[in-house]
Amino acid sequence: MSQPLMLQRKIKQKILLAxxxxxxxxxxxxxxxxxxxxDQDELAEVIDIAGSQRMYSQKLALYAHRYYxxxxxxxxxxxxxxxxxxxxxxxxxxxxxxxxxxxxxxxQLPLTISNTYFSNPTNLNNKITIYVNAATELSQTTDVDAAxxxxxxxxxxxxxxQLLSDLSRVVQLFKQDAFSDKTQYHFYVxxxxxxxxxxxxxxxxxxxxxxxxxxxxxxxxxxxSKNLNDDYKLAMNKHAIVFRVNxxxxxxxxxxxxSEFYGVKDDDIIGKKVFTICGDSYTQKDYENIFKVCVVDxxxxxxSLNKIKDGRELWLNTTxxxxxxxxRRIDSFIVIQNDISGIKQTELALNELHQxxxxxxxxxxxxxxxxxxxxxxIFNLPIAIVSKIEPPEYRITHCxxxxxxxxxx
Length: 409
Description:
There is one protein chain. By secondary structure, the protein is an alpha+beta fold. 67% of the residues lie in helices and 14% in strands. The chain has eleven helices and seven strands. It has helices at 3-72, 78-104, 111-118, 124-140, 144-154, 157-239, 256-262, 266-269, 284-297, 341-357, 364-379, and strands spanning 241-246, 251-254, 300-307, 313-324, 330-339, 383-390, 393-401. A five-stranded antiparallel sheet has the order 2-1-5-4-3, sandwiched between helices. A two-stranded antiparallel ribbon has the order 6-7. Strand 4 and strand 5 form a beta hairpin. Helix 4 runs antiparallel to helix 5. The model has no long low-confidence stretch (mean pLDDT 84).
């Protein structure tokens, strides 16, 4: 796997890790603080209900005394009786709720609250049960004496005041516990905030900071590679002919050396087929063979015969390299060429010279004539001669001219 892909994968993994940690941290903090807040809300509701119990105890006593006074006058006060029963029912249901809450939160609440509700000498839960039962009994009796006994036994002013005092004490205990819980709530909020800050720092220190270093190193390596590539490109453009073609064989890039050698400009060649500069001797089979070698060996190198603007065909040392995309598929080719026409011409001349001088069937005069003809071709000369000077004579022994206007002798 290439370094950029490895770096990309590492960055992706670290980002996912950071997101996961932050998500877990936020979720845990939210759940924890929500639970604390819910506990606070529930305790506040308990305090409200416990406070309302004081009102219901007073209303119950008030309606009981009204009902009894009306009974003494021989009148059945149904309104007071109904209000008394309603208050008693609400008083009893609230007490059931408060008792259940104390039992369910026995380990979290102060022991004094549980003792106040269920243990002697206060045993508030039992007192309220007796208080409610007394109200029910009073509502069911029609005998004044029996009603008096109930009033005297349960709704005496001192007893009512004592019950009110016990109820107020419970409210105070709940408030003290709420204050303590509120202090703890603020403490836990502070701890959670500190934990979040610490975790965020750790995420930065062990996730984002290393990732930042990786990115910085990759950027510096990329910048160095770019600068090196620019240097290579500058050197290549100064030294060689460079062009690029796509899979359809169309020019997509040429450098200045290409324009100078082939005698064309960018606008004249970009988008045109590369075959326009290839020698006429090439066949479709030749192109297919070159492409196959590029695919198998990842490059092709050899000598090619190319055609410049004036129609001349010149020899070039050519290297073709396929360029691949991120999916490792070839999408274009880069071609690098150097003019070797002079070298090739010298090579051909030496071969021809060797053939002439080593031909045993030719005599000396025939070999000299062929050498003169070869000289005219190589150096593009109109005439070539071999002469002999014997003063005062200057005599031509061998001669080759295009016009055939000079002959030996």
